[in-house]
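Q: I'm building a small set of examples for a reading group on sequence design. Run inverse folding on the following structure and report the sequence directly after it, with nothing in between.
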């Protein structure tokens, strides 16, 4: 029913040439068209940062809120408008620093919003300070001698907050981005999609050791529910169980066959294996992209709506005035 053009606004896109945000915007337009939800039934809400300009480029309802408050505003919007499809856009600074508390509680509550977390490991809008996802020792304008702290890993926060949907993609991998965005939108409850995104100006190439075409096949693994966890240029490497941990092996060597390779189960309620998959970093084990966890659970907004209807029917309230006047009242003359 829809094309990507139906979701594009008439505003000129004001991101730097080569910024990964362009690819994310393109993928989101295509995912929305494939989803089939009308623009006037869609809202895009953001905080502050380069990525948070995205609502201007959408022909939908949109709200460019204040720093770190995108998830809070998106929660309120969804609860008040449960029929709407809500997308919330944040960067690693906006979403995990000042907005970190809102992020984990939106995930914990399982609010039915689609959270896109664009992770370029830098504050780009304010010109190159280190962010909560920067590695220890990272040199930036605000850490000229290197950071002295360890980073947040977005997946770890999601699982710590008992999240039920987590996926990861790469900005330039448009097919995977559309795949996981569609899955996120169709999931009932809080869905988090981490996008490894490049900042050409202040952190160029931060993900290149994993995402460059020459190495991507060997350093990433595209997980799909129900399929063998195989990767590599020739598809001959796989993940096997090694005690309580995972190990990458080459099929046909050291006695390993394809039967030993694990099958991805994104729907199992236990997040034990999902955490291990999400924490792989592309070095000793390949970085996982695709839908890593997708488990059904009661959504916050649906539960609130159900509770309100139940109380109204039991108490007979149809409005706030009815509630206020339900107890003992008196008239002052």
């Amino acid at each position: 029913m829809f094309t990507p053009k139906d979701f594009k606004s008439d505003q000129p896109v004001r991101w730097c040439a080569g910024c990964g945000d362009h690819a994310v915007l393109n993928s989101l337009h295509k995912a929305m068209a494939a989803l089939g939800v009308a623009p006037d039934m869609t809202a895009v809400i953001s905080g502050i940062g380069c990525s948070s300009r995205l609502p201007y480029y959408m022909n939908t309802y949109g709200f460019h809120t204040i720093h770190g408050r995108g998830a809070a505003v998106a929660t309120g919007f969804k609860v008040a408008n449960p029929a709407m499809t809500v997308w919330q856009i944040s960067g690693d600074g906006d979403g995990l620093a000042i907005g970190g508390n809102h992020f984990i509680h939106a995930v914990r509550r399982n609010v039915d919003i689609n959270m896109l977390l664009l992770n370029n490991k830098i504050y780009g809008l304010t010109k190159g300070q280190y962010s909560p996802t920067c590695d220890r020792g990272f040199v930036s304008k605000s850490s000229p001698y290197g950071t002295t702290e360890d980073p947040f890993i977005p997946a770890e926060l999601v699982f710590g907050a008992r999240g039920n949907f987590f996926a990861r993609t790469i900005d330039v991998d448009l097919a995977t981005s559309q795949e996981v965005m569609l899955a996120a939108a169709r999931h009932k409850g809080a869905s988090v999609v981490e996008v490894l995104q490049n900042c050409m100006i202040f952190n160029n190439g931060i993900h290149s050791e994993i995402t460059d075409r020459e190495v991507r096949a060997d350093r990433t693994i595209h997980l799909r529910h129900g399929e063998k966890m195989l990767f590599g240029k020739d598809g001959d490497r796989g993940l096997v169980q090694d005690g309580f941990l995972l190990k990458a092996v080459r099929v046909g060597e050291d006695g390993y066959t394809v039967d030993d390779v694990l099958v991805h189960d994104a729907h199992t309620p236990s997040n034990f294996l999902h955490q291990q998959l999400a924490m792989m970093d592309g070095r000793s084990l390949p970085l996982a992209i695709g839908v890593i966890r997708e488990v059904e659970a009661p959504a916050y907004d649906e539960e609130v709506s159900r509770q309100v209807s139940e109380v109204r029917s039991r108490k007979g309230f149809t409005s706030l005035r009815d509630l206020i006047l339900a107890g003992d009242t008196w008239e002052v003359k």
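The mean pLDDT is 96.
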